[in-house]
Amino acid sequence: MAEKKLNLIAAACTSKGKMGIGINGNLPWRLRQEMAYFERLTKTAQMEGMKNAVIMGRKTWDSIPEKFRPLKDRVNVVLSNSLTECPPGADHLCSSLNEAVKLFSSPPLSETVDMVWITGGSAVYKDGIDSPHCHRIYLTRIMKEIECDTFFPEFDLDRFKLVTDPAVDQDTQEEKGIQYKFEIYESSS
Ligand SMILES: NC(=O)c1ccc[n+]([C@@H]2O[C@H](COP(=O)([O-])OP(=O)(O)OC[C@H]3O[C@@H](n4cnc5c(N)ncnc54)[C@H](OP(=O)(O)O)[C@@H]3O)[C@@H](O)[C@H]2O)c1
Q1: What's the pLDDT score for residue 103?
Q2: Which of 110, 125, 167, 176 is most buried by a 10 A CB count?
Q3: Which range marks the domain in which residue 139 is found?
Q4: Residue 10: CB partners within 8 Å, gap ≥ 6?
Q5: Which residues does 98 contact at the CB level (< 8 Å), separation at least 6?
Q6: Which CDD domains match (predicted)?
């Protein structure tokens, strides 16, 4: 069984010297073009006729307004140890990242799911980074100090190297007076 590669996608600002991703169960900013980037990347399958999957923690699922759940045109997986049933609208409930990876790496889903995206929050990102199957981290660097209570984990810059991809604009972006950059880190192991 060939296990699927994992891609992480996150946007992080600077917050007390750390990489802030959330506050009070929500995003600390509202940047439409950045959201559109998330949607484009997570939706676009490389293999024709296949769909991508998104894996997220229960609180991240809860943070998505009901009208935008599930994230459309993607297979939605929620990780939880407290839920006993898949939340309405989601496709699968798993009790660990490993279980989700196995689900997508064996039939029937291995034949219909193309890219697997980890979309947060903190502990799920950490599990993704620690996984030998982690391929890329798509990290939007929001160049502003904003108060946060949830953080992106530190990762090893000897293992993850900054790369470029023609599908991703390297220029500094700006929305609502906030500057940000799309970065991609690729695992060398
Ligand atoms: N900036 C960004 O890119 C970004 C992306 C995503 C989220 N966010 C923000 O981050 C915050 C939410 O993230 P969070 O870190 O607080 O929570 P989270 O990771 O979304 O959810 C935590 C919950 O997920 C379940 N869980 C997590 N890891 C698991 C694992 N390995 N196996 C099984 N279950 C697992 C547990 O659910 P149970 O308690 O049910 O067991 C845990 O309590 C919000 O503020 C959100 O807006 C930001």
Answers
A1: 94
A2: 125
A3: 6-187
A4: 21, 119, 120, 125, 137, 138, 139, 140, 152
A5: none
A6: DHFR
Tell me the CA–centroid distance for residue 119 and ligand 1, in Å: 9
**113 found inside a domain:** yes
**Which pLDDT belongs to residue 17?**
95
- Does residue 1 lie in a domain region? no
Residues of the chain short of pLDDT 70, as ranges, are 1
Asked whether residue 33 is assigned to any structural domain, the reply reads yes
Tokens of 132: 């030998």
pLDDT score, position 1: 65
Query: What's the confidence (pLDDT) of residue 96?
Result: 97
What's the rounded Cα separation, in Å, for the pair 95 and 85?
Answer: 11
Q: Is 174 assigned a catalytic role?
A: no
Of ligand 1's listed atoms, the one at least distance from the Cα of 21 is 1
**92 Cα to the center of ligand 1, angstroms:** 16
Interhelix angle 97-105/122-130, rounded to 10 degrees, is 60
pLDDT at 141: 98
**Domain for residue 169, yes or no?**
yes
Nearest partner of 15 among 23, 26, 7, judged by Cα = 23
Question: How many domains, in total, are found in the chain?
Answer: 1
For tokens 């676009």, what's the residue? 44
